Amino acid sequence: xxxxxxxxxxxxxxxxxxxxxxxxxxxxxxxxxxxxxxxxxxxxxxxxxxxxxxxxxxxxxxxxxxxxxxxxxxxxxxxxxxxxxxxxxxxxxxxxxxxxxxxxxxxxxxxxxxxxxxxxxxxxxxxxxxxxxxxxxxxxxxxxxxxxxxxxxxxxxxxxxxxxxxxxxxxxxxxxxxxxxxxxxxxxxxxxxxxxxxxxxxxxxxxxxxxxxxxxxxxxxxxxxxxxxxxxxxxxxxxxxxxxxxxxxxxxxxxxxxxxxxxxxxxxxxxxxxxxxxxxxxxxxxxxxxxxxxxxxxxxxxxxxxxxxxxxxxxxxxxxxxxxxxxxxxxxxxxxxxxxxxxxxxxxxxxxxxxxxxxxxxxxxxxxxxxxxxxxxxxxxxxxxxxxxxxxxxxxxxxxxxxxxxxxxxxxxxxxxxxxxxxxxxxxxxxxxxxxxxxxxxxxxxxxxxxxxxxxxxxxxxxxxxxxxxxxxxxxxxxxxxxxxxxxx
Length: 489
Ligand SMILES: C[S@@+](CC[C@H](N)C(=O)[O-])C[C@H]1O[C@@H](n2cnc3c(N)ncnc32)[C@H](O)[C@@H]1O
What we know:
Layout: E1 4-6, E2 11-14, E3 23-28, E4 31-32, E5 38-42, E6 45-50, E7 57-65, E8 69-79, H1 105-123, E9 146-152, E10 172-176, E11 184-186, H2 197-210, E12 225-232, E13 238-244, H3 249-262, E14 266-273, E15 287-291, E16 295-300, E17 307-312, H4 322-336, E18 343-347, H5 353-358, E19 364-369, H6 372-384, E20 390-394, H7 397-400, H8 403-409, E21 414-417, H9 426-435, E22 439-444, H10 447-457, E23 461-469, E24 479-486
Parallel strand pairs: 2-3, 6-8, 13-14, 18-19, 18-21, 19-20, 21-22
Antiparallel strand pairs: 1-2, 3-7, 4-5, 5-6, 7-8, 9-10, 9-12, 10-11, 12-13, 14-15, 16-17, 22-24, 23-24
The structure holds S-adenosylmethionine.
Residues 317, 319, 348-350, 353-354, 369-371, 374, 396-398, 418-420, 445 line the site of S-adenosylmethionine.
């Protein structure tokens, strides 16, 4: 026995040597760390925990033992944190979606703000101004404008629900179990997208079962119905994209006609034939069976003066929390402090939303983006809004953003950059230093990679504003906007 260790119960009250499978009881969860893991201490060693909430006193089973830290899973909660909330969703714990529902929203915001500060200070080692308080999400439920569901011939069942006498599983239309590519649970109600999203999904499931249309078998890769995407806008338009494995118009029409009849808000009904091994449809043709091949989102122009329209096609990226996207863009626009003489570069422009949003206050906006189809959307979005001072280029920013582009398009006065989670390639950061705009506004959905990139940029720039924004309530994700102003040229 090391310290106080009981071999029968594996309960370790005190002891220097910890083994995989050991149970530690009575530890207090202190805080949240990266990836939403809880943090506690035991015998001077840090323990990263799956489950629990800061302020809980828990029992945990250790599953990883390292010299500097331990990892474990909460097996029992001995005292509940005052910051806890009763999760509102029946799928909490099964679904990977809104995994912070058990923590009240004010506490979620506190940890998101902390995540930003920790990353910028620890990883970036940056000199920072006072970090502004996080902007909460206007809505904490039904805030998403897009959901993607998967069909599965044999839906996942919990251990309690599984009957070995009757092992047959029902077909499911829902979400993947976290980290299980072949396990999908049937969603009864999801709190992420406004009505009639749930009713549409349930009608699709019902109609498919009524006609005995085969759901896809994810392991054997056979079946017909693969995925259902529902996209919606604040203007009340809805797009449906049904993905199937081969052409059978009787089945496709059976499902889509039911939706057409029951849901007049659907303005774009589409299907895709996908016989590939994966569900991505960016390389496939989309057939618009009924309505328009796009939906239109509206956003107030910065500084007033009416609305901007954004066309969203089945393959177009659009920020999934539309109301928060508007706040995010407005803050970025305010931070940029544009004048009509400014040449602006919008890096990672997607469908040109930011470029078109800021164009009225700039001399010219150059938008750069990898996906060719998104660039085509960006041009359409300029045209339908009567914007004539934008130019868009498709390609990898690492290759596109160079001296030749800058020589032909003009020196940037302001660069707005909104990279994916991986952040910017080091060459892109270096090119920004070479281009030396007066200001850089860096929007990020990953404060860790943002901190890494800011470290490079701070060789020549001072950080003058930091504004976290919550786009995804009940998740660990946080968006952050940083303004950099040139210090050295
Ligand atoms: C976070 S999204 C931002 C989209 C846009 N700013 C918006 O708010 O809608 C990141 C975008 O970067 C694009 N992207 C990712 N890697 C890229 C690269 N190496 N070069 C150019 N674009 C890239 C993605 O296709 C995506 O559209």
